[in-house]
Structure formats: structure tokens, C-alpha cells
Amino acid sequence: MSENAKISGFIGKKILRLISLLLIVSFVSFMLIQYSPIDPVRAYLGEMAVSAEHKAKLEEYWGVNTPPEEKFLNWAGDILKGDFGVSLIYRMPVTDVIKERFAASLALMASSWMISGVLGFILGIASGMHKGTLFDRAIKTYCYILTATPTFWLALVFLMIFSVQLGWFPIGLSVPIGVTAENVTFFDRIEHLILPALTLSLLGVAQIAMFTREKLTEVMSSDYVLFAKARGEKGLDLVLRHGVRNVALPAITLQFLSFSELFGGAVLVEQVFSYPGIGRATVAAGLMSDVPLLLGIVLVSAVFVFTGNLIADIIYEFIDPRIKQQETTI
Amino acid sequence: MLLGVVVVVLALILVFMSSGAPVNSVSGASDELVVNVYSHTGEPDTGFDPLQGWGCGHVNFEPLVQSTLFKSADDGSIINDLATGYSVSPDGKTWTVNVRDDIKFTDGEKLTANDVAFTFNTAVGSNSELDMSNLESARAINDTAVEFKLQEPQSSFIWRLRYVGIVPEHAYEKETYGRNPVGSGPYKLVQWDRSQQAIFEYNPDYYGQKPYFKKITMLFLDKDTAFAAAKSRKVDIAEIEINNVNQTIDGYDFISLPSSRAFGVSFPTQYDTGSKSLQGDPIGNNVTADITIRKALNTGIDRKAILDGVLYGKGDVEYTGVDQREFGNPEAKIKDSNLEEAIKVLEAAGWEDSDGDGIREKNGTEAEFDLYYSSSDQTRQALSVAVSEQARKMGIKINLMGTNWDEIYANQYSSAVLYAYSSIDTFNLYHQYHSKEADATYMNPGLYSNPVVDGYLESALRSSDQAQATKFWQLAAYDGSTGYGPAGDATWLWLVTMDYLYAMDETLDLGTPQQNAGSDILGNIYEWTRIDESSSTSGK
């Protein structure tokens, strides 16, 4: 009974939070676009000469002279009806653009999220087990360097080494050059995914590895591990039985919280690898003041990041309340 | 469980690494072509729809999927494609174009004058880069003749007929056509992987000269990635940045083709009286409004040195912005890199350095102004630096302002700006130098106003005869006493025309590329072939 009340309270709170988040995020991004100095018609035409008449028509199409409050209310009204509008750049429904692009990005983000989580966890455990050794210090240094490395730079270096010099991977894109869709195999797609996903995941490794390492050392010096040691358990067995179990859940929680970084990193990696994801659409929409598309992407990405945080919260709240207790005591 | 996942993931990675995915050479078959040459404007966001700008927007180029009424010969002149001829009424407002009777769209339907009229009528309301505001309506007189009614006479309308691809009335749907275009051009679109590539296949029913390449894959990589693609032999021809010109790639020739991309500095020609543009931007500059300053810079600057220094000599010196075109006027050019003469002009007009700071002044005004350029473009930055360094020798101080386009546009009426013009459409000239357009569009940045030049530009635009129009375009640059060119009012400091650079697989033969094709490198795709590899090495 009380458990049920707790759950419904939790859900209600989250839904309220999501709604207010979406409201604020869409309003702020709308205002940012509105007050950015970018003139969409100029951005669209560049240095091309058109007649004044044609320019006036374009200004009408891009809504240059529509008052901002009217523009926003129109947009918000349509959104409530489930209509995200038509992208000004691509001239197709915003929902279609997002569906198409997000699907590609999801594959990239999901795989790199998996790799970074698993790799980071293993490195963290290994490093925590051998605390103070050369191995541990090497991993620590590696993590520090990674956190300081710009994503796009690492992507470029990888591209030069693995694609151009060694020829192990394709130079970008998500499908082979010149191959029609029916001839693209699942493995072709995987092959094109590996390098961008690796780049993205290597950067995510640092955080999770350092966290796991800290946690593990903490656990290893706890009373129950001392007790286990006293019983004669030792080595990998000891770590697996008592350490990993206690470290895994907080690490997974942390991993869910990293959704936002994942999204930001994907934007940069997609640029370098010409990967057709949501990141490149975002850049285009921003640079050309494509209001419907940009706001659509903002909403979707807000929901995406929110979901990550929500899952982390659920783990906090229901699966392992200890985390919350720890947090409050800290 | 976790360990299991790890092992599987690592194993997968290892499998792929060890299998090594051997670098496939450029293309499987020799009649397949991989290009990355459309990078001047990037991918068509709206798809392959001429009514949304494909082929005929920012930069004009061969639309491949559709055919056009006219096309360009190797020498750049306009010749018939779908059209069999055209005539213009004496008042210049009615154009009649006759079209061929024997042409089919790829879906088997016949192409008639109705489709042509439909294409242009639909283009009028397209809200795209394609500016059709002067077209009142198009009408099919019969199956093989179309009549275009213009609001104002416009000789440059021929360029619209040259680049707008004809779409079928029965299969055109604004929302979907760009993804599944039906046309009558040399190629069919097979597949478009958005923001990655487009795959075209040869149209067996094509009426014109049969292209050698049965399949074209057009990549949409940025230039750095395209260069990497060439290095790993994944592309037959890729446009590359000018600063890669001294590199080499095994198996590739680096070629440079003349383009229409002219770089020049615009000068505000009005004095600063405190007035503002409609958008509230300041107007006028007391230094550049003095024709002596503009003349001195035009005379004193060493364009050849700039060409060699910035563009590695890949291009040509430029005096009027349209030197390379048939409507350019050689009389409007002047002799440059004459520092002595420049200084003489300045001193005669009273610009002297009396306070010894190296900068001339006249009546208390220092010979100093700002030059804006887009800081995201290295070529523009290098050109701006070169100009400012050379001007310093004449005692003119140019302050460099590298910034974004919004800043640039806001300052263009009061400061010099480094611009680049690529269009080969004469309509540009009208916009750039006609006073009527001042302050209404961004295309006359110096707010240049000269009634004589206005007269020539109007006559040129209104002319119903192309040869006559050409004559007037030339007179606008210089008629012996005035004009927009350096011999006249010296309204701009035109510097160089840049070649486009390509890394090209050495087995490729481009035939005779069109003169100054600009980005329209695929315009003569019919002449492209792949030559035998053994003969290529002996040939070169």
C-alpha cells in the first residue's frame, strides 16, 4: 500500500518535472534563436544576388517579420496538437527529420554507451584492485588525458590513423560508398559504426573508470571485506564476490547520468565521420535559424537526457536505496 | 554476465580489425565513378528538386537527373538542350522557346511544352533560392512551344532557362519529388542517403550523348574528409582546399580548373553624413568615398603577388570581377602594381603624411579604414592580410576585422568588405552596381550610384538581344570616361579569380572541361571516361 503510494507519488513528481523542463527549455531556446543576430534569409542566400521582391518572399517564408510572441504561440499551439511543423531547411515535417536522424544517432550512442560503460568498469575494477601499482597509475594518467582531450580532435586523429594510414575502417559515413540499400549488409553498418562509436566511448571511459576505482577501494577497506579476508578469501574471487557487486549499481547509475555528455559528444563525432545523425541536423538548424527543427530537436534531446536521469533516479529510489542514504549522509 | 558481454564486444572488435576490411579500390567496375565535387554548396537539403534550387540555386550546375532547356558548350557559350531555338519579342517581355518532340521522362511519359510551362509556373512560388520573381507566367502554346511572359524585360533570363531542370507535371509533388525525382536527364537517382551520398545510374533512354560512366556516386564529405578519402583511394575526384596544393597522393593528379569565383574588396562610395540604412546600420566612409583612395589602391596593389602568395598561382588576376566572362570589358582594366603612380595620385589629391606616422592624411582625415572579412575562410583572411600589407606601402592603413557574416553585413555600408562572387549570371552585375537597389538588398554594398552606369545596366537587362546586352554590360564597366571598373569609378578593388582544385584519379579523363565552369564540373560528364591504367602512366 505505502509502496504503491510511493510509486505514484514518484511518477507524478517526475511527470510534473518533465513538463516544466520542456516548457522552460523550449522557451529559452526559442528566445535564444530570436535574439541571436542570425538573419535566416541572409544565412540561406549567402552572397547570392536576388531581387528585392524575392527577398521579401523569403522573409515571409522564414517568418522574419512575424512578432516573436506570435511565432512562439503558433509553434506551441501546434505542438500541443502534436504537430511539430515543417523544417524550413529540409522542407519536410520536423518529426520525419528527427526520426530519420535520431535512429542513426541512437545506434551510435547506444553502442558507445555500452562500450564505455563496460570498458570503464573493467578498467576501474582492475585499477582499484592494484591500487598504487604502475598499472593503476597508468590507467589514472590515461583517464586524466582523456578528460582533457577534445572529442573532435581525437576523432580526427583516429580517422587519420585507422582509416587513412592503416585502412582498417571506412573513412566515414554509415554505409559503404556507392552501394544501394538492398546490398548493404548488417555487418557493413557495424563496420561503419565501430570507429565513431569507439571514439565516443573512449572519452566516456574516464569518468566511469575513475568512479569505479574510488568506489572499489572504499569497498575493499570496509569491515565486511576485512571479515571476508579474515575468512581466507582473496584475489579476484574476493573482488568479484564482494567488490563488483557493490560497485556495479552505483556505476550503472552514473552511466545513465552521462546521457547528456553522450549527446554532446555525438554531435562532434558525427561531424568528423560524416555520420548522418541528429548532431549534424542540429548544427544546420542552428546556423540557419530553422526554428521548428531546432526546437523539435531540443525537445527530443531534453526528453532523451531526462530519461537517462529518470532511470538513474529509479535505481536510486527503488532498486538500491542505499545510494540515496549515502548521498544524504555525505 | 558482464564479463560475457565484454568478451563478445571485444571479440567482435577484434574480428573486424583482423579481417582488416581491405581497402576496396576506387570502384568495382571501371565505368563507375565516385565524386565529391559538389562541395561548394554542400548537399541539396531539399533533395534533387530544381524548383527548390537543385542545379539552379546558389551556384548553377548540371542537375543530372533533369534536362534543361539550354546547356553550355565546352567554350562556355549557351547551346540547345531540350530547346530547338528561342526568340524574344522586341519589347523583351515575351520569350518563346521551342522544345523537342521526341523526349521521354524516365517513367515513360512524354515530355511536352506543358511540363516546361508547369516547371516555371511552379518555380515562381517556390520560396527557394531560385529567384523567379520577374516571371509573370509561362504557357504552352502547343506541344512544342512555350511562351514566357516577363514582368520586366530581362536579358539575364536566359540563365534561368539554362539551369532550371524540367520536372514532369504528372509526377511532381512538392513534398516528395526531391527524394524521388523523375526527369529526362542523363542519370536517374537510385538512392539518397541523406547527408552521406547520392547514387545515380545512367538513364538508358537518354536522348543526348551517352555518358561513359554507368553509375555515379556523389559523396557529401567536407573537404578535409574528402582529402582523406582520396588518400585512401575511395574517391575518383575530390575537390580539395588550396592549401593542399603542394601535397601529393599516389595515383592522383592534382588539377586546377578555372572558375568564376572572383574575390574583391568593396568600398563604401558615399561620404559619412550620419545617415543610416533601413536596418539602422551606419552609411558612408570619408576615406573610401574619395575616388583617389580607390584609384590609388587599384593602381598600387600588386595582384600577381597576391595570386602567387595566397593562391599559389592557381587562378588569375582580376580587375572587374567578371574579367573572365564574355560580358567582361577589357577596357575597364588598368595597369596595376604601380606603386609610384599610386603615390603620385594620392599626393596630387592632397593625401600627404605630414605628421610622419607613415599614414597619409588630408584635412585632418587619416587614410585609414576597416576591412571586414569572414574569419571562417582562410583564403579570405590571407587575401585581406595581403591587401592591408601592400596598402601600408602607399601610406594607407587598413584595419583587419575578421568576424561573422552578420557583423559584416551590418558594416558593409561604412567599411570595406572582402567578398567573393561565383555566379555567372549577369543579373549579379545589375544588383551589384545599380543604384536603385542601394539599401534595399545587400548586393550593392558600397551604395554605388552613377546615373550613367545605371543607364547601361538597365539597357543591358532590358535588352531582348543577348549580343546587345553583352555590349551594354561591358559599357557599364567602362565606356571611355566612366563605369564601375577600375578605369572608371574604381568602386571595388577586385583581386583574383580562384581556380578550383581537384585531386583526380589518374585513370580519369575529363575531356574538355567547360571554360570557367565554376562548380559545374559535371557539366560535361558526357565526355568523361576512364582510360587504361597502363596508357595513363606513359601518357603523363
Automatic annotation (TrEMBL), chain A:
User: Which InterPro entries does the annotation name?
Assistant: MetI-like, MetI-like_sf
Q: Where in the cell is it found?
A: Cell membrane
An annotated GO cellular component of this protein is:
plasma membrane
Transmembrane region(s): 15-35, 102-129, 141-164, 193-212, 247-273, 293-316
Keyword field contains Transmembrane: yes
Q: Tell me which UniProt keywords the record has, alphabetically.
A: Cell membrane, Membrane, Transmembrane, Transmembrane helix, Transport
ABC transmembrane type-1 domain: from which residue to which, for each copy?
102-316
* Superkingdom in the source lineage: Archaea
According to its UniProt entry, the protein's GO biological process terms are: transmembrane transport
* Topology class, membrane: Multi-pass membrane protein
Family, according to the entry, reads as follows:
Belongs to the binding-protein-dependent transport system permease family.
Q: What is this protein called?
A: ABC transporter permease
Q: Which organism is it from?
A: Methanosarcina acetivorans
TrEMBL record, chain B:
Cite the Pfam families for this sequence: SBP_bac_5
Q: Which SUPFAM superfamilies does the UniProt entry name for this protein? A: Periplasmic binding protein-like II
Coiled-coil-forming residues are: none
Its cellular-component GO annotations read: ATP-binding cassette (ABC) transporter complex; periplasmic space
UniProtKB keywords: Signal, Transport
CDD domains hit by this protein:
PBP2_NikA_DppA_OppA_like_19
A GO molecular function for this record? peptide transmembrane transporter activity
Keyword Protein biosynthesis part of the UniProt annotation: no
Please name the InterPro entries in this protein's record.
Answer: Peptide/Ni-bd, SBP_5, SBP_5_CS, SBP_5_dom
> Which range is the signal sequence, renumbered to this chain?
none
Q: Could you tell me the superkingdom of the organism this chain comes from?
A: Archaea
Query: Gene3D superfamilies, per this entry?
Result: Dipeptide-binding Protein, Domain 3, Periplasmic binding protein-like II
Q: Which GO terms describe its biological process?
A: peptide transport
* Residue span, Solute-binding protein family domain: 78-418
Q: Which family does it belong to?
A: Belongs to the bacterial solute-binding protein 5 family.
PANTHER family per the UniProt record, alphabetical: OLIGOPEPTIDE-BINDING PROTEIN APPA, PERIPLASMIC BINDING COMPONENT OF ABC TRANSPORTER
Protein name per its UniProtKB record: Dipeptide ABC transporter, solute-binding protein
Q: Which gene encodes it?
A: dppA
